[in-house]
Amino acid sequence: MHAAGWTVAVSARRAEVLAELAVRDPARIVPVPLDVRDAAAVADSVHRIERDVGAIRTAVLSAGTYVPIRAHAFSAQVVRETFELNTFGVARARNLPPPGITAAILTSAGRSRC
């Protein structure tokens, strides 16, 4: 999207990764540090993007992590935390009401493209 001339807001938990990305084009790559496990932070980030960049026209929602676990060291807590991030992280963003992110991820046919 950036290559096509769009201004993009990018988010990740690690601000240093975002800074490295934004340095490529500070005018059109807007870093938004965010932990999608925090519902209030997700909502705040959407409002910040709309305030600082403008209306969200398209949203690409993706969140994920991978933690390898050997069978002998299995941890239900690690599985729970991974599931929480990978599944509910995107759901939190998708759950925001219009005119926020929900309106942005609907196509003209009314189908979601997340």
Q: What fraction of the residues are assigned to beta strands by DSSP?
A: 5-15%
Compute the number of helices: 4
Helical content (DSSP H or I, runs of 4+): 25-40%
- Largest β-sheet summary: 2 strands, parallel
Strand order of the largest sheet: 1-2
Tell me, what is the CATH class? Alpha Beta
Poorly predicted residue ranges: 105-114
Total domain count: 1
Reported CATH architecture? 3-Layer(aba) Sandwich
CATH superfamily: NAD(P)-binding Rossmann-like Domain
Backbone shape? globular
Protein model, in words:
- The protein has 114 residues and is mainly alpha-helical.
- The chain has a single domain (8-104), classed as NAD(P)-binding Rossmann-like Domain (Rossmann fold, 3-Layer(aba) Sandwich).
- Helix content is 39%, strand content 9%.
- It has four helices and two strands; from the N terminus they run E-H-E-H-H-H.
- A two-stranded parallel sheet has the order 1-2.
- Strand 1, helix 1 and strand 2 form a beta-alpha-beta unit.
- The longest helix is centred in the C-terminal third of the chain and has 19 residues, at 76-94.
- Mean pLDDT is 82; it is low at 105-114.
